[in-house]
């Protein structure tokens, strides 16, 4: 199978979704947030004194909207009133007809703050430390007018970090307590010894403007010798100051740190007001820190602990102010500012680093299937280090990039704010032969100079293009600013620190953003080509689009003007309280060389009919606050400060009026009487689909100002007023710069590694993007001669891709070997995207070799070899060698040999089915292509056959053998001849030994000859044991404490005592059992019962402790010749049922009950009164007591008395 690969290229589209955040809020933002807290939560005595004055050290505002000369009023101290307390920033009021007056003084004394002391710069002037009163604000006034601010720590110290202060520069330090400032303390920075060998320049910056140099007549050697005159910049002191923090910042761009706004501050403060315990307040601040900085819960707690906040005594406002100050401080201490001025820090420096993403990841940077991106940063690689380098360096393109706030569209000394340092800039170029280059990337830097008049000033970028790219024809392409080389520049949309979107809307040269422009052109916008060497002093200009509704009233409160535009607003008496102008779509026509004013409405510019113009103005109170709190800051900081102020005080917006343009693009917006402040207006344009448009106007950044405050970017004719019917403005025009999110990509083929050839019949393009321009779009194909061979208007992207297909057979002239075809996407007359491919006749394009797809059995002992591919006619192609197209995806069981053969040997683990192996063919002429071979892996024997197993049953006591289990397994249908499957038992220990009844499954593996395997379980049943176990109990006797006996091994024996107590034990492997019992008494009987493992129970057995036979005797009495008295119990056995027998002695005996019986006779008496047998004598009767096997013999003693006369009365007296 033959195939051509998709080429891999990268292209860039200006996509509004492609954003990155400058996740940092400057001291300016924090000041507004803290200021808002103070404004909302001030104490009653905070407004007792109103002071109006002018701070001569403050940064002058170059674009403060006003039509009247400012008036500086004397300091006025007013008596206290009963009005609600307010705190207003210092303002300069408009002139009045009333002379300045001083009201009667009050008893309140204004205490001037103590001046800062112990002021000291560090060695490189990047830090300034000092001592002042704890809690006060300290201002640092730099020589260029910039004002830095910080707060004195609780220990009385303060520090400004990340400063850019020149050698021996004099700065001023002022302490601020409320509205009162101390006298300034002057400090001289350290002298820095120069550490550069760069010779001083002699050319003044103003003479470098592109309009004074003739690109077509000035030789490179003349420019090379040109150097610049010395300026106030101290380059040798800047480099060591700026290098270190930038390195630190670039390592800290991973963490996404959110930007707090005043709304969230107010919500948190309100919540704090409802809490009473320190623990509750700390928990709320912890949550705020987590949500607004991205740190973990544990890190937030640790950071709060370092602040040592007094939750009991500090107010809610003070707690929030301290936290906001700490966040800003830590960011300033650890990162580089996103604005050109240094940001101050405070002593809250113990928090963990809060990372800043100055130029974070672009979410959708490149389109799929586009060319490789090349980083070619000439500053980063050291090729350009100075303005002289930028002037003379060969094969470079350089310039600067700005955010258009207030200034001019020139490319030097324009007063604009540079884009955040590190912003990525992209460049692409088209060579004279139509070959389109890869895309190059560089990043802006502020390191080389801080002087706005320098061509390497803030926002400088430079591309090092010395390394050529080589096309399929072997031609090396190097950009060196010759006349037929075109270039384009762009910056992706990015999000500012206040949440707005910066998007490109002007390019120098070329005017139209992101368009290709010739290196040598009569349309000069400040760029300067050193022809044959480089392009320098180009420019990129970014428009700030407001996000959110903070610049307007809520849309439900908008006033919709349906009356339409005034016919002649400049002279109309109906124009009072109105703003009029027109809106058009800017094509660049007529303005390609206009760098002095905003664009003109030329014939080629379509009128924006049906577009909506939206404008807001400020109340008198709002204007006063805006002037004091926003316009007092440098231009670069006003946007974020204005947003914070207006979010906190939406009531400052007096009205928002909208109206739709007529067929000529004209509009008039009529404001209610008293709501139009002509010096404080903001406006923008929305297209019919509701998308906010980027425009040339006075409102290239969301700020309230007069329509004529930024005339260099204001569409002509300039805004003006009819003073008779003021307040009003007319000629407030908007020139829309379309934001087109479309780029062009040639599919499959390119100018480098994938040329088209004779085997290709057509080439397609891909239109990447979605947003379509209001200007006409078209695609033009040109051939190698530059002739347009196809032109297609684009109204629908999908259909446009189909219609733009380049079919070679449709061409008037057939393609020739090495010819370059270029596709260009036009927006109006501006080329905004381009791509190219080369038509080349190569061995790769003329050969049609292919493999024969192969079926291979898995698990074979020997590999299978697939033959090398042949052309369709059977001829061997002129291939140099073969190799895997992608070695990372080549199966481990396949080897692509250099001769084109492929060795395959899949084992049994490889799944069955087709596997495509791409192979690169390298031809003798240096061309190459990728062809495929499909190897189909056949199913394994295991996948073909299914084994079965018969169940096994054994009687109890019979062990299961391996042979039984193996013999139970069969493979139905398997051939009986040849090598047979091998059956193995996975675990022999699972085989039953017959001693336990029940069922078990024995896992068995069937291994086939191809090494594939099957698993099956064999069921084995051992029958249950139904015979009761036998049990014995040994004899016992009184006094024993152990009872033992025998039964079946592993049986459970239960011993039962006479009192019912049971004792359970187990027999050992020999069947013996033994238990300990209480001491056994005579006659006690103990039983035992056994139960085996199958729950069979034995009959009980017992043992009794025997009793020892004993008999007790008692003496008897009788009278000679008389029957013994009845009832004499003379023998008593201890065991009932015993037998008593005796032999009569002298007529006396003991009967069976143990009683004496008989009549004493046959006794011999003595007549000697002293003899023992004279009157009494004792008769002994032997008695035998028998009980079972026991016999006891006792003697019974009977005393017989003499009865001589036989009268029954004994002789004894």
TrEMBL record:
Region of interest (Disordered), residue spans: 50-83, 196-243
InterPro entries the record matches: Big_6, Ig-like_fold, RibLong, YSIRK_signal_dom
Residue span, YSIRK Gram-positive signal peptide domain: 15-40
Signal peptide: 1-46
Gene3D superfamilies recorded: Immunoglobulins
Segments forming domain Bacterial Ig: 1031-1106
Residue ranges of domain Long Rib in the record: 844-937
Key words of the record: Signal
Pfam family, one: YSIRK_signal
Protein name: Adhesin
């Amino acid at each position: 199978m033959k195939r051509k690969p998709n080429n891999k290229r990268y292209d860039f589209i200006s996509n509004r979704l492609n954003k990155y955040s400058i996740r940092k809020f400057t001291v300016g933002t924090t000041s507004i947030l803290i200021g808002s807290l103070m404004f909302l939560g001030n104490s009653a005595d905070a407004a007792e004194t109103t002071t109006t004055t002018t701070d001569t050290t403050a940064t002058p505002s170059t674009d403060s909207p006003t039509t009247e000369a400012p008036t500086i009023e004397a300091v006025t101290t007013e008596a206290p009133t009963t009005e609600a307390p307010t705190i207003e920033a210092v303002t300069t009021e408009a002139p009045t007809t009333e002379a300045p007056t001083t009201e009667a003084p009050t008893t309140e004394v204004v205490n001037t703050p103590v001046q800062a002391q112990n002021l000291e710069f560090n060695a490189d002037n990047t830090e300034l430390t000092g001592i002042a009163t704890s809690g006060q604000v300290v201002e640092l006034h730099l020589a260029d007018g910039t004002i830095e601010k910080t707060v004195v720590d609780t220990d009385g110290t303060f520090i400004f970090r990340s400063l850019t202060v020149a050698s021996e520069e004099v700065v001023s330090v002022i302490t601020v307590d409320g509205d009162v400032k101390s006298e300034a303390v002057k400090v001289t920075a350290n002298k820095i010894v120069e550490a550069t060998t760069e010779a001083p320049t002699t050319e003044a910056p103003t003479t470098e403007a592109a309009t004074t140099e003739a690109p077509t007549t000035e030789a490179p050697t003349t420019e090379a010798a040109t150097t610049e005159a010395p300026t106030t910049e101290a380059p040798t002191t800047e480099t060591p100051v700026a290098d270190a923090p930038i390195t630190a910042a670039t390592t800290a761009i991973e963490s996404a740190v959110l930007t707090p706004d005043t709304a969230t501050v107010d919500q948190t403060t309100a919540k704090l007001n409802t809490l009473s315990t320190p623990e509750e307040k700390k928990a709320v601040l912890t949550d705020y820190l987590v949500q607004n900085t991205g740190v973990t819960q544990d890190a937030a707690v640790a950071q709060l602990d370092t602040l040592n906040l007094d939750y009991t005594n500090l107010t809610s406002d003070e707690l929030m102010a301290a936290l906001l100050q700490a966040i800003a401080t830590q960011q300033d201490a650890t990162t580089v500012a996103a604005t050109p001025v240094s940001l101050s820090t405070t002593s809250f420096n113990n928090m963990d680093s809060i990372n800043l993403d100055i130029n974070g990841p672009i979410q959708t940077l490149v389109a799929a299937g586009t060319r490789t991106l090349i980083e070619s940063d000439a500053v980063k690689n050291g090729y350009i280090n100075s303005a002289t380098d930028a002037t003379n360096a060969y094969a470079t393109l350089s310039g600067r990039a700005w955010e258009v706030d207030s200034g001019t569209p020139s490319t030097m000394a324009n007063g604009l704010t540079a884009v955040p340092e590190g912003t990525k800039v992209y460049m692409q170029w088209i060579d004279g032969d139509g070959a389109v280059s890869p895309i190059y990337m560089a990043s802006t830097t502020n390191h080389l100079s801080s002087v706005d008049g320098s061509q390497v000033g803030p926002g400088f970028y430079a591309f090092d293009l010395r390394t050529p790219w080589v096309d399929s024809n072997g031609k090396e392409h190097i950009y060196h600013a010759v006349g037929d080389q075109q270039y384009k520049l762009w910056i992706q949309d990015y999000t500012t620190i206040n949440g707005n979107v910066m998007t490109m809307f002007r390019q120098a040269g070329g005017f139209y953003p992101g368009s290709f422009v010739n290196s040598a052109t009569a349309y000069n916008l400040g760029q300067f080509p050193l022809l044959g060497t480089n392009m320098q002093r180009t420019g990129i200009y970014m428009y700030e689009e407001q996000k959110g509704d903070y610049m307007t009233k809520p849309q439900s409160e908008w006033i919709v003007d349906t009356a339409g535009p005034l016919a002649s607003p400049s002279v109309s008496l109906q124009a009072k309280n109105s703003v009029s102008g027109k809106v058009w779509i800017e094509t660049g026509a007529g303005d390609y060389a206009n760098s002095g004013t905003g664009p003109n409405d030329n014939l080629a510019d379509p009128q924006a009919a049906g577009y909506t113009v939206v404008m807001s103005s400020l109340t008198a109170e709002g204007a006063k606050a805006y002037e004091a709190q926003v316009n007092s800051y440098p231009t670069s900081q006003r946007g974020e400060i204005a947003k914070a102020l207006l979010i906190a005080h939406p009531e400052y917006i007096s009205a928002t009026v909208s109206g739709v343009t007529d067929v000529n693009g004209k509009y008039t917006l009529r404001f209610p009487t008293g709501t139009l402040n002509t010096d404080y207006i903001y406006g923008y344009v929305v297209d019919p689909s509701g998308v906010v448009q980027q425009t040339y106007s006075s409102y290239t950044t969301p700020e309230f100002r007069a329509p004529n405050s930024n005339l260099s970017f204001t569409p002509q004719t300039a805004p003006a007023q009819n003073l008779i019917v003021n307040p009003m403005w007319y000629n407030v025009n908007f020139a829309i710069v379309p934001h087109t999110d479309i780029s062009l990509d040639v599919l499959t083929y390119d100018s480098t590694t994938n040329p088209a050839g004779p085997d290709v019949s057509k080439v397609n393009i891909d239109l990447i993007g979605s947003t379509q321009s209001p200007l006409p779009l078209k695609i033009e194909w040109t051939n190698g001669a530059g002739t347009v061979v196809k032109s297609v208007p684009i109204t629908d992207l999908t259909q446009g891709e189909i219609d733009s297909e380049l079919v070679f057979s449709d061409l008037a002239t057939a393609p020739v070997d090495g010819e370059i075809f270029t596709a260009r996407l036009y927006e109006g007359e501006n080329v905004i995207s381009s791509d190219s491919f080369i038509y080349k006749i190569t061995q790769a394009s003329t050969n049609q070799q292919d493999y024969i797809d192969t079926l291979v059995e898995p698990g074979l002992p020997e590999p299978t070899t697939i033959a090398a591919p042949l052309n369709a006619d059977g001829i061997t192609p002129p291939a140099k060698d073969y190799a895997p197209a992608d070695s990372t995806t080549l199966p481990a069981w396949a080897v692509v040999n250099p001769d084109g053969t492929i060795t395959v040997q899949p084992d049994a683990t490889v799944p069955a089915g087709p596997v495509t192996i791409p192979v690169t063919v390298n031809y003798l002429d240096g061309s190459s292509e990728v062809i495929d071979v499909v190897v189909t892996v056949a199913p394994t024997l295991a996948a073909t056959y299914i084994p079965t197993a018969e169940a096994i049953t054994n009687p109890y006591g019979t062990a299961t053998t391996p042979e039984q289990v193996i013999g139970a397994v069969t493979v139905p249908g398997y051939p009986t001849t040849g090598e047979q499957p091998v059956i193995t038992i996975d675990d022999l220990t699972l085989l039953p030994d017959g001693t336990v009844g029940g069922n078990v499954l024995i896992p068995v593996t069937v291994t086939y000859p191809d090494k594939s395997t099957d698993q099956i379980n064999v069921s084995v049943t051992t029958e249950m044991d139904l015979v009761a176990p036998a049990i014995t109990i040994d004899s016992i006797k009184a006094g024993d404490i152990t009872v033992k006996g025998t039964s079946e091994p592993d049986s459970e024996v239960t011993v039962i005592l006479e009192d019912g107590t049971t004792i359970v034990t187990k027999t050992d492997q020999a069947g013996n059992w033994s238990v300990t019992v209480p001491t056994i008494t005579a006659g006690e009987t103990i039983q035992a019962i056994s139960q085996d493992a199958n729950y069979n129970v034995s009959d009980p057995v017992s043992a009794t402790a025997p009793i020892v036979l004993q008999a007790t005797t008692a003496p008897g009495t009788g009278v000679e010749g008389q029957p013994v008295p009845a009832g004499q119990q003379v023998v008593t056995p201890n065991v009932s049922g015993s037998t008593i027998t005796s032999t009569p002695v002298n007529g006396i005996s003991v009967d069976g009950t143990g009683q004496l019986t008989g009549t004493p006779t046959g006794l011999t008496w003595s007549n000697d009164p002293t003899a023992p047998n004279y009157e009494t004598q004792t008769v002994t009767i032997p008695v035998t007591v028998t009980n079972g096997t026991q016999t006891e013999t006792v003697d019974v003693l009977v005393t017989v008395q003499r009865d001589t006369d036989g009268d029954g009365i004994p002789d004894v007296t």
